[in-house]
Amino acid sequence: DRVSLRGEVRSLTAEGATARVDELIAAAQSVARSRGLTVDVDLEHKYEAWHLGEDHAGLALAKEAGRLLG
Question: Quick check: 29 and 36 in contact, CB under 8 A?
Fold first, then answer.
């Protein structure tokens, strides 16, 4: 028998995303081991972590658009 899970992890930093993924895998492996099962993990990296600083022009533009829209 087989169980498939699909999920997504995002973070403002690459390190944060990696840490969350590691935690999720460790938890799945721990539960599986306790029941005599195994876990196969297939990761697909789709996005890079990024963050706009408070002084970024794009953020200022978005804030102004939101203000104008009410």
Answer: no
Whether pTM > 0.70 for this model: the answer is: no
Q: 15 near 23, Cβ under 8 Å?
A: no
Predicted confidence (pLDDT) per residue in 19-66, tens digit: 999 999 999 999 999 999 999 999 998 878 777 888 999 999 999 999
Burial label, 11 (beta-carbon count in 10 A; 0-12, 13-18, 19+):
middle
Q: 21-50 burial, b for 16+ CB within 10 Å, e for fewer?
A: beeeeeeeeeeeeeeeeeeeeeeeeeeeee
Distance CA 5, CA 23 (A): 15
d(CA 15, CA 26): 16
